[in-house]
Design a protein that fits this description.
Blueprint (H helix, E strand, L loop, with lengths): L3 E4 L6 H10 L4 E4 L2 H6 L3 E3 L5 H10 L3 H9 L4 E4 L1 H4 L2 E4 L5 E2 L4 E7 L10 E6 L1 E2 L14 E6 L1 E5 L5 E7 L1 E9 L2 E4 L7 H18 L1
Parallel strand pairs: 1-2, 1-3, 3-4, 4-14, 5-7
Antiparallel strand pairs: 5-6, 7-11, 8-10, 9-12, 12-13, 13-14
Length: 208
C-alpha cells in the first residue's frame, strides 16, 4: 500500500505523527504536494497553533481543495487537534473565522473558570459515545493527552464519538462516514493513541 499523506501546511507536529504511524507499521509521508495527497489511500490533517493562521496557510499553499477532495472522494481521513477544528464551519478564535465546512458546527473557547486553567493541557479521560472502528480495543475511561484552548461544538450530536469533561463536557472526537477526528493527540497518548492510529490504518487497509 502507498504511504499515507500527512498534510504539511507549515504548522503542527508533523514528524511526530509520521513517526507514530510508522510505529504501528504504516508508511507515511509529510507532503504539501496536491498530487501526492490525491494519490494517498488515507490522509491525516494534524495541527498546532491558531485556527486563522492554519486556514491562511492551507489557502496560500493551495491545499484547501486537495483536503476537501480527499474527504469527498470517501478516502479515510484523520484530523488531529487543530486538524479536527478546521473541519467545522467556523471558529471564534480571533474571529469568527471560516473553516472547511466539512462538519456542521463551530469552535468555541473554554469558559472562564477559576478552578481550571486554559489551555486544557495534560491527560484526561474519554467517555465513548459511539463504538466505531477507530475506537476498537479502547476502553471507556481511557486517558489521552490534550493541549488546546478551544473545542468544537458539533451542530449534530450524532457526530460525537467520544466526550471529555473539563468544566464542560466537550466532543473530544467526532466521526462521519470516512472522517474521524480527535481533539487529543494520539501521537502523544502512548498505548491508547497508538491503538487509535493502528485502528485508522486498519480502516485504510480495509478500503484499499
Amino acid at each position: 500500500m502507498q504511504p499515507l499523506a500527512v498534510v504539511d501546511y507549515g504548522m503542527g507536529n508533523l514528524r511526530s505523527v509520521q513517526k507514530a504511524l510508522e510505529r504501528v507499521g504504516q508508511a507515511a509521508e509529510v507532503t504539501r504536494d496536491p498530487e501526492r495527497i490525491a494519490a494517498a489511500p488515507g490522509v491525516v490533517l494534524p495541527g498546532v497553533g491558531a485556527f486563522g493562521a492554519c486556514m491562511a496557510n492551507l489557502r496560500a499553499l493551495g491545499l484547501l481543495e486537495p483536503v476537501r477532495r480527499a474527504i469527498t472522494a470517501n478516502r479515510p481521513f484523520l484530523g488531529i487537534c487543530l486538524g479536527m477544528q478546521l473541519l467545522f464551519d467556523e471558529s471564534e478564535e480571533f474571529g469568527p473565522i471560516e473553516g472547511l465546512h466539512v462538519l456542521p458546527g463551530r469552535v468555541v473557547r473554554f469558559p472562564a473558570d477559576a478552578e481550571r486553567k486554559v489551555p486544557h493541557m495534560g491527560w484526561n479521560t474519554l467517555r465513548i459515545a459511539r463504538r466505531v472502528p477507530h475506537l476498537a480495543g479502547i476502553a471507556d475511561g481511557s486517558h489521552v493527552y490534550f493541549v488546546h484552548s478551544y473545542y468544537p461544538v458539533p451542530a449534530d450530536p450524532a457526530l460525537v464519538a467520544t466526550a471529555t469533561p473539563y468544566g464542560v463536557e466537550f466532543a473530544s472526537s467526532v466521526v462521519r462516514d470516512n472522517v474521524f477526528a480527535c481533539q487529543f493527540h494520539p501521537e502523544k497518548s502512548q498505548a491508547v493513541g497508538l491503538r487509535l492510529l493502528e485502528n485508522f490504518v486498519a480502516v485504510v487497509r480495509g478500503r484499499a
